[in-house]
Amino acid sequence: MRAVVVGAGGREHALAHVLARTCDVVVTPGNPGIPASVDAPPTELDADLFVIGPEAPLVAGLADQLRAQGKRVFGPGADGARLEGSKAYMKRLLVAAGVPTARHGSFTDRNEALAYLDTLGDLFVIKTDGLAAGKGVVVTTDRREAVDAVERYLSGEAFGDAGRTCVIEEGLTGPELSLLAVCDGRSAVALSPAQDFKRVGDGDVGPNTGGMGAYSPVPFASQKLIDEVMADSVAPTLHALREQSVDYRGVLYAGLMLTPTGPKMLEYNVRFGDPEAQVVLPQFTSDLGELLAAAADGDLGSVPGPRFGGHWVTVVCAAAGYPRAPRTGETISGVDRANARDGVTVFCAGVARDTAGRLVTNGGRVLAVTASGATLSAARTAAYAAVDDISWAGRHVRRDIALRAAEDRPPS
Ligand code: AMP
Ligand code: GLY
Asked: What's the rounded Cα separation, in Å, for the pair 104 and 214?
């Protein structure tokens, strides 16, 4: 099977790497660290399967465009991608489907928004309605900071039109879990659960990022919990989408918080997580291409369920200044040495080549180093050993990815 992966980040590198076990793969546009990157519009490529990585082209309707050309596509149309493109829409759908989520309201009016803040407890959460590259969420106990966020969002100052509607919700507490489900429009299968580390600094301090690392599987995510989320959240969501004539074929990424009163849906994404993909996909011991093609055909029942093996950790290496103002153009060394280690793969994201052909930093999250092991602790040790092979000026990594889980401590 020939497959085209659309996108340019670490997630797309991981998709291509794992699909290449059974498919001929090209990635568009890819990046200089991803083999088989081609610079051609996906509409001009020919393949048996198209897999769209990032949310922006999904929200913009690329899957619809490719399907209109008769292509087999894994990824929702623009109608389904609204789940990620508009948090207000997502919240309405969650309520319609009866999926447990935080108490919330959607606002365009400043005074109504500020009045709603007064109805919340002491943890305020303010989110842009539209896409903000993972940076549009403020979680704070400081009411002044909450008011400031509301004002900067609604005025358009902070995120332009993406923030002119904002969602305000009660703050929840508990460990977070990413559960990715592959959907064929009617049914869904769960992939191995992952945990992502969103804050930039060790001990979960500093601003939210796209994700600084991840591990999978997750010791506290039992099969019972996964079955419960699939039955109580994912299945009713697919049903509610179908009632709106949305034929959702792609990944439904459930971002959950495991609160003292049960799992609650923080958000849905309409794509594989990044960096979750870098630990969930290499874990496949069954054929990823076959599974995604069956989902794209609306016929998951025609293939065996996915199987997984091993323990996996990925550590993101970020540029100095990430997430605010990443420094680009720094020469990267040691990637080949890291890749040569047993069970280690380096997935490239924010990289470019300089005029001398050397790999240089070209974004915030530059690359992710994934390693496997017989235990989570072994995977973690292997990942950090490989991380230490790689260097550039000002490189930033978190040193506590998967630490608590590897030490058998309860999640934070
Ligand atoms: P989201 O983009 O909605 O997943 O939010 C990004 C991050 O903000 C989540 O991964 C959580 O860490 C945090 N967050 C979002 N909603 C809430 C909430 N209601 N309570 C506490 N933290 C939240
Ligand atoms: N790792 C979080 C995300 O992909 O949205």
From this structure: 28
